[in-house]
Specification:
Blueprint (H helix, E strand, L loop, with lengths): L1 H10 L17 E6 L2 E8 L5 E5 L12 H7 L5 E5 L15 H14 L6 E6 L1 H12 L4 E7 L6 H9 L5 H10 L5 H9 L1 H6 L13 E6 L6 H15 L5 E6 L6 H4 L1 H17 L14
Parallel strand pairs: 3-4, 3-5, 5-6, 6-7, 7-8
Antiparallel strand pairs: 1-2, 2-4
Length: 292
Protein backbone atom coordinates (compact mmCIF):
# COMPACT_ATOMS: atom_id res chain seq x y z
CA UNK A 1 0.00 0.00 0.00
CA UNK A 2 2.89 2.36 0.75
CA UNK A 3 4.24 1.85 -2.78
CA UNK A 4 0.80 2.58 -4.27
CA UNK A 5 0.42 5.77 -2.23
CA UNK A 6 3.90 6.86 -3.31
CA UNK A 7 3.06 6.18 -6.94
CA UNK A 8 -0.18 8.15 -6.64
CA UNK A 9 1.60 11.16 -5.16
CA UNK A 10 4.19 11.05 -7.89
CA UNK A 11 1.55 10.85 -10.60
CA UNK A 12 0.10 14.13 -9.34
CA UNK A 13 3.19 15.78 -10.85
CA UNK A 14 1.42 15.56 -14.20
CA UNK A 15 -0.57 18.61 -13.16
CA UNK A 16 2.60 20.71 -13.37
CA UNK A 17 2.72 22.89 -16.43
CA UNK A 18 4.41 25.74 -18.25
CA UNK A 19 5.38 28.63 -16.00
CA UNK A 20 5.30 32.33 -16.60
CA UNK A 21 8.35 33.82 -18.27
CA UNK A 22 7.34 37.24 -19.62
CA UNK A 23 5.92 40.33 -17.94
CA UNK A 24 4.39 41.81 -21.09
CA UNK A 25 1.34 40.07 -22.45
CA UNK A 26 -0.87 40.76 -25.46
CA UNK A 27 -4.45 41.83 -24.69
CA UNK A 28 -6.92 39.17 -23.63
CA UNK A 29 -9.69 38.43 -26.11
CA UNK A 30 -12.84 36.46 -25.31
CA UNK A 31 -15.11 34.43 -27.59
CA UNK A 32 -18.38 32.55 -27.14
CA UNK A 33 -17.82 28.89 -28.03
CA UNK A 34 -21.39 27.77 -27.34
CA UNK A 35 -23.29 26.15 -24.46
CA UNK A 36 -22.85 29.27 -22.37
CA UNK A 37 -19.06 28.98 -22.41
CA UNK A 38 -16.69 31.87 -23.11
CA UNK A 39 -13.00 31.17 -23.65
CA UNK A 40 -10.19 33.70 -23.40
CA UNK A 41 -7.05 33.79 -25.51
CA UNK A 42 -4.00 35.91 -26.13
CA UNK A 43 -2.09 35.96 -29.39
CA UNK A 44 1.01 37.47 -30.87
CA UNK A 45 3.33 37.21 -33.85
CA UNK A 46 2.43 36.64 -37.46
CA UNK A 47 2.77 34.02 -40.14
CA UNK A 48 2.00 30.35 -40.14
CA UNK A 49 1.51 27.71 -39.11
CA UNK A 50 -0.04 29.06 -35.92
CA UNK A 51 1.41 27.59 -32.74
CA UNK A 52 -1.27 26.81 -30.15
CA UNK A 53 -0.25 26.18 -26.54
CA UNK A 54 -2.24 23.73 -24.39
CA UNK A 55 -1.22 23.51 -20.78
CA UNK A 56 -1.64 20.93 -18.09
CA UNK A 57 -3.56 21.23 -14.83
CA UNK A 58 -2.39 23.01 -11.73
CA UNK A 59 -1.40 26.48 -10.65
CA UNK A 60 -0.06 27.76 -13.97
CA UNK A 61 -2.62 26.34 -16.37
CA UNK A 62 -4.37 29.46 -17.60
CA UNK A 63 -3.96 32.23 -20.10
CA UNK A 64 -0.26 32.71 -19.31
CA UNK A 65 0.71 29.35 -20.78
CA UNK A 66 3.51 29.53 -23.30
CA UNK A 67 4.82 32.96 -22.28
CA UNK A 68 8.35 31.73 -21.70
CA UNK A 69 8.40 29.76 -24.93
CA UNK A 70 7.00 32.68 -26.87
CA UNK A 71 9.88 34.80 -25.59
CA UNK A 72 12.37 32.09 -26.60
CA UNK A 73 10.95 31.81 -30.10
CA UNK A 74 10.64 35.52 -30.83
CA UNK A 75 9.00 36.32 -34.17
CA UNK A 76 9.07 32.78 -35.58
CA UNK A 77 5.34 32.60 -36.32
CA UNK A 78 1.86 33.32 -34.89
CA UNK A 79 1.20 32.18 -31.32
CA UNK A 80 -1.99 31.52 -29.42
CA UNK A 81 -2.42 30.65 -25.75
CA UNK A 82 -5.79 30.21 -24.10
CA UNK A 83 -7.48 29.27 -20.84
CA UNK A 84 -9.71 26.22 -20.79
CA UNK A 85 -13.22 26.56 -19.40
CA UNK A 86 -13.11 26.91 -15.63
CA UNK A 87 -9.77 28.69 -15.62
CA UNK A 88 -9.66 32.48 -15.40
CA UNK A 89 -10.29 34.57 -17.37
CA UNK A 90 -12.45 32.04 -19.25
CA UNK A 91 -15.93 31.25 -17.94
CA UNK A 92 -16.79 28.22 -15.80
CA UNK A 93 -17.24 24.90 -17.57
CA UNK A 94 -20.86 24.09 -18.39
CA UNK A 95 -20.36 20.49 -19.55
CA UNK A 96 -18.22 17.47 -18.61
CA UNK A 97 -14.53 17.90 -19.45
CA UNK A 98 -14.32 15.04 -21.92
CA UNK A 99 -11.72 14.88 -24.68
CA UNK A 100 -14.23 15.56 -27.50
CA UNK A 101 -15.62 18.54 -25.57
CA UNK A 102 -12.22 20.10 -24.86
CA UNK A 103 -11.17 19.61 -28.49
CA UNK A 104 -14.43 21.02 -29.87
CA UNK A 105 -14.25 24.10 -27.63
CA UNK A 106 -10.69 24.84 -28.75
CA UNK A 107 -11.64 24.26 -32.38
CA UNK A 108 -14.55 26.71 -32.10
CA UNK A 109 -12.37 29.24 -30.29
CA UNK A 110 -9.74 29.22 -33.02
CA UNK A 111 -12.44 29.50 -35.67
CA UNK A 112 -14.21 32.39 -33.93
CA UNK A 113 -10.89 34.19 -33.39
CA UNK A 114 -10.05 33.92 -37.08
CA UNK A 115 -6.99 31.75 -36.45
CA UNK A 116 -6.93 29.69 -39.59
CA UNK A 117 -5.36 26.23 -39.78
CA UNK A 118 -3.01 24.50 -40.02
CA UNK A 119 -1.86 24.52 -36.40
CA UNK A 120 1.21 23.31 -34.56
CA UNK A 121 -0.07 22.10 -31.20
CA UNK A 122 2.18 22.22 -28.15
CA UNK A 123 0.91 20.18 -25.22
CA UNK A 124 2.53 20.01 -21.78
CA UNK A 125 1.58 17.45 -19.15
CA UNK A 126 -2.20 16.89 -19.31
CA UNK A 127 -2.24 19.27 -22.26
CA UNK A 128 -0.44 16.61 -24.26
CA UNK A 129 -3.50 14.37 -24.05
CA UNK A 130 -5.77 17.25 -25.05
CA UNK A 131 -3.75 18.17 -28.15
CA UNK A 132 -3.61 14.55 -29.23
CA UNK A 133 -7.39 14.44 -28.98
CA UNK A 134 -7.64 17.59 -31.11
CA UNK A 135 -5.24 16.18 -33.70
CA UNK A 136 -7.15 12.90 -33.83
CA UNK A 137 -10.52 14.59 -34.29
CA UNK A 138 -9.31 17.35 -36.66
CA UNK A 139 -6.34 15.74 -38.45
CA UNK A 140 -6.56 17.90 -41.57
CA UNK A 141 -6.05 21.05 -39.48
CA UNK A 142 -2.88 19.98 -37.68
CA UNK A 143 0.58 20.61 -39.15
CA UNK A 144 2.66 19.32 -36.27
CA UNK A 145 2.82 18.36 -32.60
CA UNK A 146 5.16 18.97 -29.67
CA UNK A 147 4.50 16.85 -26.58
CA UNK A 148 6.53 18.15 -23.64
CA UNK A 149 6.49 15.70 -20.73
CA UNK A 150 3.03 14.70 -21.88
CA UNK A 151 0.67 12.69 -19.75
CA UNK A 152 -0.48 9.44 -21.33
CA UNK A 153 -3.78 7.59 -21.12
CA UNK A 154 -1.98 4.42 -20.01
CA UNK A 155 0.12 6.00 -17.28
CA UNK A 156 -2.27 5.31 -14.41
CA UNK A 157 -3.40 2.07 -16.07
CA UNK A 158 0.17 0.75 -16.16
CA UNK A 159 0.67 1.96 -12.60
CA UNK A 160 -2.28 -0.15 -11.48
CA UNK A 161 -0.85 -3.14 -13.31
CA UNK A 162 2.58 -2.59 -11.78
CA UNK A 163 1.11 -2.48 -8.28
CA UNK A 164 -1.20 -5.42 -8.90
CA UNK A 165 -4.40 -3.51 -8.07
CA UNK A 166 -7.71 -3.08 -9.88
CA UNK A 167 -7.81 -0.71 -12.89
CA UNK A 168 -8.84 2.77 -11.79
CA UNK A 169 -7.29 2.51 -8.32
CA UNK A 170 -4.35 4.87 -8.89
CA UNK A 171 -6.39 7.61 -10.55
CA UNK A 172 -9.08 7.39 -7.85
CA UNK A 173 -6.48 7.82 -5.12
CA UNK A 174 -4.86 10.66 -7.06
CA UNK A 175 -8.18 12.49 -7.29
CA UNK A 176 -8.88 11.89 -3.59
CA UNK A 177 -5.56 13.53 -2.70
CA UNK A 178 -6.21 16.47 -5.03
CA UNK A 179 -9.60 17.11 -3.39
CA UNK A 180 -7.74 18.35 -0.33
CA UNK A 181 -6.13 21.09 -2.41
CA UNK A 182 -7.75 24.40 -3.46
CA UNK A 183 -7.94 23.44 -7.13
CA UNK A 184 -11.40 22.04 -7.96
CA UNK A 185 -10.89 22.64 -11.69
CA UNK A 186 -7.95 20.24 -11.83
CA UNK A 187 -9.95 17.69 -9.87
CA UNK A 188 -12.81 17.95 -12.33
CA UNK A 189 -10.53 17.71 -15.37
CA UNK A 190 -8.96 14.50 -14.09
CA UNK A 191 -12.22 13.10 -12.76
CA UNK A 192 -14.12 13.64 -16.00
CA UNK A 193 -11.42 11.63 -17.78
CA UNK A 194 -11.55 8.76 -15.27
CA UNK A 195 -12.81 6.30 -17.91
CA UNK A 196 -9.77 7.15 -20.04
CA UNK A 197 -7.29 6.63 -17.21
CA UNK A 198 -8.96 3.43 -16.00
CA UNK A 199 -9.12 1.86 -19.47
CA UNK A 200 -5.83 3.19 -20.83
CA UNK A 201 -7.65 4.22 -24.01
CA UNK A 202 -8.54 7.66 -25.36
CA UNK A 203 -11.78 6.26 -26.74
CA UNK A 204 -11.63 8.38 -29.90
CA UNK A 205 -12.19 7.34 -33.52
CA UNK A 206 -9.29 7.72 -35.91
CA UNK A 207 -5.60 8.16 -35.22
CA UNK A 208 -2.96 10.87 -35.09
CA UNK A 209 -2.06 12.39 -38.45
CA UNK A 210 1.43 11.66 -39.75
CA UNK A 211 2.87 15.13 -39.15
CA UNK A 212 6.17 16.42 -37.74
CA UNK A 213 6.24 15.37 -34.10
CA UNK A 214 8.61 15.89 -31.18
CA UNK A 215 8.15 14.04 -27.89
CA UNK A 216 10.24 15.23 -24.95
CA UNK A 217 10.80 13.08 -21.87
CA UNK A 218 12.48 14.36 -18.72
CA UNK A 219 14.34 11.61 -16.88
CA UNK A 220 15.67 13.61 -13.93
CA UNK A 221 15.00 11.33 -10.94
CA UNK A 222 12.13 13.31 -9.42
CA UNK A 223 9.93 10.21 -9.76
CA UNK A 224 10.47 6.50 -9.08
CA UNK A 225 12.60 4.69 -11.63
CA UNK A 226 9.72 2.33 -12.38
CA UNK A 227 7.48 5.21 -13.43
CA UNK A 228 10.19 6.82 -15.53
CA UNK A 229 10.66 3.50 -17.32
CA UNK A 230 6.93 3.31 -18.10
CA UNK A 231 6.84 6.93 -19.21
CA UNK A 232 9.82 6.56 -21.52
CA UNK A 233 8.21 3.52 -23.12
CA UNK A 234 4.87 5.29 -23.62
CA UNK A 235 6.54 8.38 -25.04
CA UNK A 236 8.52 6.17 -27.38
CA UNK A 237 5.28 4.68 -28.66
CA UNK A 238 3.94 8.18 -29.34
CA UNK A 239 7.09 9.10 -31.24
CA UNK A 240 6.72 5.98 -33.38
CA UNK A 241 3.36 7.19 -34.71
CA UNK A 242 5.10 9.73 -36.96
CA UNK A 243 7.43 9.16 -39.89
CA UNK A 244 8.81 12.68 -39.28
CA UNK A 245 9.44 12.74 -35.59
CA UNK A 246 12.02 12.53 -32.86
CA UNK A 247 12.07 11.57 -29.22
CA UNK A 248 14.22 13.83 -27.07
CA UNK A 249 15.25 12.35 -23.73
CA UNK A 250 16.91 14.68 -21.25
CA UNK A 251 18.45 13.83 -17.90
CA UNK A 252 18.73 17.52 -16.95
CA UNK A 253 15.00 18.00 -16.37
CA UNK A 254 12.07 16.34 -14.73
CA UNK A 255 8.46 17.17 -15.44
CA UNK A 256 8.60 20.96 -15.67
CA UNK A 257 10.77 21.25 -18.76
CA UNK A 258 9.81 24.82 -19.54
CA UNK A 259 11.40 26.05 -16.32
CA UNK A 260 14.58 23.98 -16.42
CA UNK A 261 15.25 23.72 -20.17
CA UNK A 262 13.05 26.23 -22.00
CA UNK A 263 15.51 26.30 -24.89
CA UNK A 264 14.99 22.57 -25.45
CA UNK A 265 11.22 22.96 -25.78
CA UNK A 266 11.67 26.08 -27.92
CA UNK A 267 14.01 24.24 -30.27
CA UNK A 268 11.47 21.45 -30.59
CA UNK A 269 8.73 23.93 -31.51
CA UNK A 270 11.03 25.66 -33.98
CA UNK A 271 11.93 22.38 -35.66
CA UNK A 272 8.29 21.32 -36.00
CA UNK A 273 7.25 24.72 -37.40
CA UNK A 274 10.04 24.67 -39.97
CA UNK A 275 9.39 21.03 -40.85
CA UNK A 276 5.70 21.79 -41.30
CA UNK A 277 6.57 24.65 -43.62
CA UNK A 278 8.84 22.42 -45.68
CA UNK A 279 6.27 19.58 -45.72
CA UNK A 280 9.18 17.17 -46.06
CA UNK A 281 11.56 15.42 -43.71
CA UNK A 282 13.46 18.20 -42.01
CA UNK A 283 17.03 17.85 -40.74
CA UNK A 284 17.06 17.51 -36.98
CA UNK A 285 18.71 20.54 -35.38
CA UNK A 286 21.91 20.01 -33.42
CA UNK A 287 20.75 22.00 -30.34
CA UNK A 288 17.76 19.71 -29.88
CA UNK A 289 19.69 16.49 -29.33
CA UNK A 290 19.10 14.38 -26.20
CA UNK A 291 20.94 15.66 -23.15
CA UNK A 292 23.83 13.56 -21.92
Amino acid sequence: MFMLQHLVRVLIVFGVCFTVGCSRKPPVEKFDVGNGTTLALIRSGKGGPTVVFENGSGKFSGIESGDRLRKQLGSLTSFVAYARAGRAPSSPATSPRTLPTIAAELHTLLEKAGCRPPYVLVGASLGGVYVRAFATLYPDEVAGLVLAESAHERLWFEGDRLMGVEPGTAIKNTIDILRARPDPVSVRELEDLSPVWASGNLGLPGKLPDVPLVVITGLKPDRPESQLKILRQLHGELFATSSRGMHIVTSKSGHNLNSTEPELVANAVRWVVEAARDKETHAKPEPAQPAQ
